[in-house]
Amino acid sequence: MMTSQEVLTVYAAMAELTEQMVQAATASDWDQLVQLEQRCAAHVQRLRAHEPAAPMQGAQREQKIELIRQMLNADRQIRDLTMPWMAQLSKLINNTGTERRLVNAYGSV
Fold first, then answer.
1. The whole model's pTM is what?
2. What's the pLDDT band for 95 if we cut at 50, 70, 90?
3. 29 C-beta neighbours (distance < 10 Å), count
4. Which residue in 19, 26, 33, 72 is a FRET match for 43, CA 20 to 30 A apart?
5. HEC sequence for the chain
6. What are 14-45's pLDDT values in tens digits?
7. Any idea where this protein resides (predicted)?
């Protein structure tokens, strides 16, 4: 079991990681983004494995809510930055697949 302070420490680390993820996405550093995402996922697993004994109250609860808001805001920014790239990648993959099917059907030109 984790204490409330330990849980908040993990949430703060995740909030910092998501901010770094925004910076990586802004710089189109996709490898760094993936590494940071993996580190964040490890924190999520830690939280799932060590659920707190009791729900947070008062200032701790407010701090947790604020950290979650920060992470959600960062996630929104990351999605805004990655969605055009993902659409471009999807288009490229689809075009490659179409080209491959044409080559298979009609041979190379």
1. 0.74
2. confident
3. 14
4. 26
5. CECHHHHHHHHHHHHHHHHHHHHHHHCCCHHHHHHHHHHHHHHHHHHHHCCECCCCCHHHHHHHHHHHHHHHHHHHHHHHHHHHHHHHHHHHHHHHHHHHHHHHHHCCC
6. 999 999 999 999 999 989 999 999 999 999 99
7. Cytoplasm, Cytosol
